[in-house]
Each structure stands twice: as structure tokens, then as C-alpha cells.
């Protein structure tokens, strides 16, 4: 049976960040003013090696983890990523491996990722208009190569491709309907994500959040949508289908309708810290025991059981309901999104 936390939430999913670097500077995630040329990114030796990630994942699988999501930074900037996918796909108990990517490097890697055992891919794309997209990624990157990346993933069988769009007031709310229009009647599933107060550098304000209800209404006004049942308990996206048969969309309402009660996700940062919540202020260092030759797998398992067994995180519920006492207050230092990868 899977290891459970204080609120009986099982440890089932592991998000693995393989790098803190990225070729984009999305304004809401890695703003240039902070992540500039002098930013102290991690040195190679500080990152967990593929062997270290695999060993840890095997221990996590023994504790109940079934699903892996590879993320970053931009995971495809980590050299030889398909090798890691292959190592992870061979672990007993792991039945689903997905990748979250900005898709810039997907065309050249899609086939080898699938051959290595990748099951699914999520592509982040926040606008279908070139000017809006360039202003968001802040490196003047156009939309078409991202669409090429989605097509490449689709061609090698990673269907349906999920496309994530973070919606932020003043940034891209005008793109809600054009994005829907673009991805309607395709096999891909567009998922709208409320802008979240992750990290400390993106200047989050509640006023910047376009809520799930507002997103739903904007689409419904153009093409009526109807709710669908979740695929499984704890699915983070609310699912809808176009009444005219144009396919499916999802809306992830982490701010307006939080889902902490079913949160089964652990996050491993690229230098080996374990975070039990996206909004955690502090990670648990697993790299030190991992690199200590006197620590065996059983001891690593005990460390992980202890961390998860004491987990009480429900940050989004507390932020949204504003129920005190708050164990992780919105004012304290929080890990950056580019560090734990969403
Ligand atoms: N670079 C990859 C990408 O963009 O897909 C993977 C890492 S990125 C941090 C993972 C996801 O987090 C992206 O879909 C991104 O849009 C989302 N994200 C980053 N900051 C966010 C925020 N403040 N609120 C909501 N989503 C955010
Ligand atoms: Fe990079 Fe992804 Fe963050 Fe954009 S959202 S800066 S692509 S890590
Ligand atoms: Fe999970 Fe933390 Fe998000 Fe709640 S706020 S759903 S506990 S990651």
C-alpha cells in the first residue's frame, strides 16, 4: 500500500525537475530582471545524475509512486534526456511517464523520447498570436515552431497532446477564445490554467487571476460547452466538451477551486530536494543521503516515508479559504516554479 500523509493522501505521483535552466524567460515564471545572465544557475555536479534520479525513483515506486512527470526549467535542454526516460521506464511499478515542455526542442527529440518509453506530453503555449506569445516568452520566440513541436509529438503517437495555457489578466486573456478556436476540432486537449502565486519573483496579485468560471463563460459564449466526468479521482483539470462535437478542453482552477484534498504529488527539484507542495518554502535534501555511501535504499525509503508521513500541506485551500492558522503563509519565501517545474 502507498505511503500516506497526515490527511491520508497517498504518495502516487512524482514530478522530477531535471534542470533549472530554460531557453525562455516567460514573464510570469523566469522574469529577465531576476533570471538574467548573472543568475546563479546550478552547476552540473549539483544536479542529480540520471543514475541518482533512477535510484530515487525506484525507492519512490516502492512507496507507491506510479506516475512520473519530467519537467524543469525546460527539460529538453538537459542533454540525453531520452536515456533517463528509458531508465525510468524500466522501473517496476511505474506505469505512466509524461513530459512538460515548451516544445522548442520537441521536433528533434520526439521519436527518441517515444522509443525510450515516454507515454504522453504536455506542451505549454500561452498564446496563438505571435506578438502576444513573443511578449510572454520574452525571447522573441514565434508560435509556429511550438505548433511544429505539437505536430511532431502527435506524429510519433503521443496523442492526445495536452496544451497548457496559463491565463493572466493583462497578459493574454484576449487569447482564451482564439486558442480555443485553434485547438477545437483537433485531437489535442487545450487546458487553461489559473495564474498561481508560485515563487517570489513573478509579482503575483489576486487581481491578475482570471478565474476558471470566467474562462468557462468566455468559451461557452462562443461555443457552448458541457462538463465531463473526471477521468480519475484527483484529476486536477475540470473537463468539458464542446456541445457541437468539437472536442475537449480542461480548466485548472488551483486558485479559485483548490484541490489539495486529493493532492498525491511529490516534487523532486533538480539538485535533489524533495518538495511536498508546489508552494513549499523549504525542500528536504535527498541528495546528501543519496551521495552518502553508508546510506542504503532501505534508509532512503525510511527518509521518504518520514517526510511524506508528516506532510500537512494544503496551501491553496488555505490561501483561498483564508482559514488560519496558516502553516505556509503567502508572505513567506516559496520555491520558484522553474525550480520544481509545476
Ligand atoms: N519549461 C516547461 C514548460 O514550460 O512546459 C516545463 C516547466 S514550466 C515551469 C511548467 C508549467 O508551469 C508551464 O506550463 C508553465 O506555464 C507553468 N507555470 C509557470 N509559472 C506559473 C504560474 N505562476 N502559474 C501557473 N502556471 C505556471
Ligand atoms: Fe521556461 Fe517553462 Fe518557465 Fe516558460 S514556463 S520560463 S518555458 S520553465
Ligand atoms: Fe498540492 Fe500544495 Fe497544490 Fe495543495 S497547494 S494541491 S497541497 S501542491
Automatic annotation (TrEMBL):
<keyword id="KW-0456">Lyase</keyword>
<keyword id="KW-0949">S-adenosyl-L-methionine</keyword>
<feature type="domain" description="Radical SAM core">
    <location>
        <begin position="6"/>
        <end position="226"/>
    </location>
</feature>
<dbReference type="InterPro" id="IPR040064">
    <property type="entry name" value="MoaA-like"/>
</dbReference>
<feature type="binding site">
    <location>
        <position position="124"/>
    </location>
    <ligand>
        <name>S-adenosyl-L-methionine</name>
    </ligand>
</feature>
<dbReference type="GO" id="GO:0061799">
    <property type="term" value="F:cyclic pyranopterin monophosphate synthase activity"/>
</dbReference>
<comment type="function">
    <text>Catalyzes the cyclization of GTP to (8S)-3',8-cyclo-7,8-dihydroguanosine 5'-triphosphate.</text>
</comment>
<dbReference type="GO" id="GO:0051539">
    <property type="term" value="F:4 iron, 4 sulfur cluster binding"/>
</dbReference>
<feature type="binding site">
    <location>
        <position position="260"/>
    </location>
    <ligand>
        <name>[4Fe-4S] cluster 2</name>
    </ligand>
</feature>
<feature type="binding site">
    <location>
        <position position="277"/>
    </location>
    <ligand>
        <name>[4Fe-4S] cluster 2</name>
    </ligand>
</feature>
<feature type="binding site">
    <location>
        <position position="263"/>
    </location>
    <ligand>
        <name>[4Fe-4S] cluster 2</name>
    </ligand>
</feature>
<keyword id="KW-0411">Iron-sulfur</keyword>
<keyword id="KW-0004">4Fe-4S</keyword>
<feature type="binding site">
    <location>
        <position position="29"/>
    </location>
    <ligand>
        <name>[4Fe-4S] cluster 1</name>
    </ligand>
</feature>
<dbReference type="Pfam" id="PF06463">
    <property type="entry name" value="Mob_synth_C"/>
</dbReference>
<keyword id="KW-0408">Iron</keyword>
<feature type="binding site">
    <location>
        <position position="73"/>
    </location>
    <ligand>
        <name>S-adenosyl-L-methionine</name>
    </ligand>
</feature>
<feature type="binding site">
    <location>
        <position position="26"/>
    </location>
    <ligand>
        <name>[4Fe-4S] cluster 1</name>
    </ligand>
</feature>
<protein>
    <recommendedName>
        <fullName>GTP 3',8-cyclase</fullName>
        <ecNumber>4.1.99.22</ecNumber>
    </recommendedName>
</protein>
<feature type="binding site">
    <location>
        <position position="28"/>
    </location>
    <ligand>
        <name>S-adenosyl-L-methionine</name>
    </ligand>
</feature>
<dbReference type="GO" id="GO:0046872">
    <property type="term" value="F:metal ion binding"/>
</dbReference>
<dbReference type="InterPro" id="IPR058240">
    <property type="entry name" value="rSAM_sf"/>
</dbReference>
<feature type="binding site">
    <location>
        <position position="100"/>
    </location>
    <ligand>
        <name>GTP</name>
    </ligand>
</feature>
<dbReference type="InterPro" id="IPR007197">
    <property type="entry name" value="rSAM"/>
</dbReference>
<dbReference type="InterPro" id="IPR013483">
    <property type="entry name" value="MoaA"/>
</dbReference>
<keyword id="KW-0501">Molybdenum cofactor biosynthesis</keyword>
<comment type="subunit">
    <text>Monomer and homodimer.</text>
</comment>
<dbReference type="InterPro" id="IPR006638">
    <property type="entry name" value="Elp3/MiaA/NifB-like_rSAM"/>
</dbReference>
<dbReference type="InterPro" id="IPR000385">
    <property type="entry name" value="MoaA_NifB_PqqE_Fe-S-bd_CS"/>
</dbReference>
<dbReference type="GO" id="GO:0061798">
    <property type="term" value="F:GTP 3',8'-cyclase activity"/>
</dbReference>
<dbReference type="InterPro" id="IPR050105">
    <property type="entry name" value="MoCo_biosynth_MoaA/MoaC"/>
</dbReference>
<dbReference type="GO" id="GO:0005525">
    <property type="term" value="F:GTP binding"/>
</dbReference>
<dbReference type="Pfam" id="PF04055">
    <property type="entry name" value="Radical_SAM"/>
</dbReference>
<dbReference type="InterPro" id="IPR013785">
    <property type="entry name" value="Aldolase_TIM"/>
</dbReference>
<feature type="binding site">
    <location>
        <position position="162"/>
    </location>
    <ligand>
        <name>GTP</name>
    </ligand>
</feature>
<comment type="pathway">
    <text>Cofactor biosynthesis; molybdopterin biosynthesis.</text>
</comment>
<keyword id="KW-0479">Metal-binding</keyword>
<keyword id="KW-0342">GTP-binding</keyword>
<feature type="binding site">
    <location>
        <begin position="265"/>
        <end position="267"/>
    </location>
    <ligand>
        <name>GTP</name>
    </ligand>
</feature>
<feature type="binding site">
    <location>
        <position position="196"/>
    </location>
    <ligand>
        <name>S-adenosyl-L-methionine</name>
    </ligand>
</feature>
<feature type="binding site">
    <location>
        <position position="69"/>
    </location>
    <ligand>
        <name>GTP</name>
    </ligand>
</feature>
<feature type="binding site">
    <location>
        <position position="15"/>
    </location>
    <ligand>
        <name>GTP</name>
    </ligand>
</feature>
Amino acid at each position: 500500500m502507498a505511503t500516506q500523509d497526515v490527511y491520508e493522501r497517498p504518495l502516487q505521483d512524482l514530478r522530477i525537475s531535471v534542470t533549472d535552466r530554460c531557453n525562455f524567460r516567460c514573464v510570469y515564471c523566469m522574469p529577465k530582471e531576476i533570471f538574467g545572465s548573472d543568475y546563479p544557475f546550478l552547476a552540473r555536479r549539483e544536479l542529480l545524475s540520471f543514475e541518482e534520479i533512477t535510484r530515487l525513483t525506484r525507492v519512490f515506486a516502492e512507496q507507491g509512486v506510479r506516475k512520473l512527470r519530467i519537467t524543469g526549467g525546460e527539460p529538453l535542454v538537459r542533454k540525453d534526456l531520452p536515456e533517463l526516460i528509458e531508465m525510468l521506464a524500466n522501473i517496476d511499478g511505474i506505469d505512466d511517464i509524461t513530459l512538460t515542455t515548451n516544445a522548442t526542442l520537441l521536433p528533434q527529440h520526439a521519436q527518441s523520447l517515444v522509443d525510450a518509453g515516454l507515454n504522453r506530453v504536455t506542451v505549454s503555449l500561452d498564446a496563438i498570436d505571435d506578438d502576444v506569445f513573443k511578449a510572454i516568452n520574452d525571447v522573441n520566440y514565434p508560435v509556429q515552431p511550438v505548433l511544429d513541436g505539437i505536430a511532431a509529438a502527435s506524429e510519433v503517437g503521443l496523442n492526445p497532446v495536452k496544451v497548457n495555457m496559463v491565463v493572466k489578466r493583462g497578459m493574454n486573456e484576449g487569447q482564451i477564445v482564439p486558442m480555443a478556436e485553434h485547438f477545437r476540432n483537433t485531437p489535442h486537449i487545450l487546458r487553461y490554467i489559473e495564474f498561481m502565486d508560485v515563487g517570489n519573483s513573478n509579482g503575483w496579485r489576486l487581481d491578475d487571476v482570471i478565474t476558471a468560471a470566467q474562462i468557462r463563460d468566455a468559451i461557452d459564449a462562443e461555443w457552448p460547452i458541457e462538463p465531463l466526468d473526471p477521468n480519475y479521482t484527483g484529476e486536477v483539470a475540470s473537463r468539458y466538451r464542446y456541445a457541437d462535437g468539437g472536442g475537449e478542453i480542461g480548466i485548472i482552477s488551483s486558485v479559485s477551486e483548490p484541490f489539495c484534498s486529493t493532492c498525491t504529488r511529490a516534487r523532486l527539484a533538480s539538485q535533489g530536494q524533495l518538495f511536498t507542495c508546489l508552494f513549499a518554502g523549504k525542500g528536504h535534501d535527498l541528495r546528501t543521503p543519496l551521495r552518502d555511501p553508508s546510506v542504503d535504499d532501505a534508509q532512503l525509503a525510511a527518509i521518504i516515508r518520514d517526510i511524506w508521513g508528516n506532510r500537512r500541506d494544503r496551501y491553496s485551500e488555505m490561501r483561498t479559504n483564508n482559514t488560519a492558522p496558516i502553516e505556509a503563509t503567502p508572505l513567506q519565501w516559496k520555491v520558484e516554479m522553474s525550480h520544481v517545474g509545476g
